[in-house]
Predict the 3D structure of the following.
Amino acid sequence: MKKEPTYNKPRMLIFHPALAPYRIDQFNLLNELFDLEVVFLLEDVYLSNFNMDQQKLREASNFKYSFLLRGILFRRRLFRFGMLHKIRRSKPDIVMGFEYSLTTQYLMLLKKMRLIKQKIGTSVDDSLAICNHVQSKMRERVRNQSVKQLDFMVVMSKEVARFYQDHFNLDAKKVVVSPILQLPERLRKEAATIESFANHYIREYGLSGKKTILFVGRFIPEKTLPLFIETIAPWLISRDDIRLVLVGDGDEREQIIAAIKEKMLEEKIILPGKYLSEELYGWYTCASGFVLPSKWEPFGAVVNEALIFGLKVFCSCYAGASSLITPENGIVFNPLDSTDTLDKFQQYIESIKPVGDISLTDKPSLMEDQRHSFLHEWGKVLSLTRG
């Protein structure tokens, strides 16, 4: 358990899979509006190739948290026993699940059976592309039934909010628009350490004077990295001043290496491995720009991070985070359309600068401050407790 509760605010209880770094600021800000407790259903981030330092993440958390760890985890389906007991003991005004998960379905069942009376909501990370092309008929049926029973939903963009309002005739007051929120002052706090890592990478990989494009994430089919490499290969071959850095690891590593060898791009594409915290932020700091070429991406917190470190983003139209991209901070493209990718990649390359002297001060955040909007949108949930 952590932090003593504040009794003057409505109580909110959130059941969430695990503590990830890109959720900390959101939970901390929610704790300013609500007497918040987050119940984590796993001790560590799941379904990921990245091992997070959970102790470090918990130290940055200003909200109360606890754990429910007894239950079922089978084929990415997660359910924990003891949820009803936790609700009755905590006596919240609002209870939230995540996605259309078994957790959310159970909360709605408890309310339908009148075992709980709280307002029930869920957070849905789907992009607009996923809303329009649901990955399975089963999920579509569950979604369509759930939307009618929930008291409110939290979505990532205005476009997704309009989708739910138009398709399900939802009142705008029941749809909270809340993109993944990370605060620049927290991520950029250890500036000297981050700059030190950045300078080390520049020397080690010879990036000075190169237009260095960064990718951060898992090497999985959804990211379409082999296709992206194949598409932009002519540019990489013809220009000695372009480098592509792929930070991460995953099941498609061998396919990526094969694509690099096939196109003879060993000198142009760098695979340094996995990095976390300040070591990862060092990569953002020494890069010229950032790319996310996914064909399926509910949101993409890495886009948020790239913008925070002053990088213009070459962002897939299939990523929910494309809603963050403006003409000033990046370009949106279709990674499945080679012509669109190449045409816009040319524009993008001309808009970024080669790697030079490293200074976070000279790379201000390109991320719009979302705190005011965040507090306004979550005020809709506050109003539910007063109605």
Notes: Residues 46-50 have pLDDT under 50 and may be disordered. The two ends are 31 Å apart (CA to CA). The longest strand covers residues 211-218.
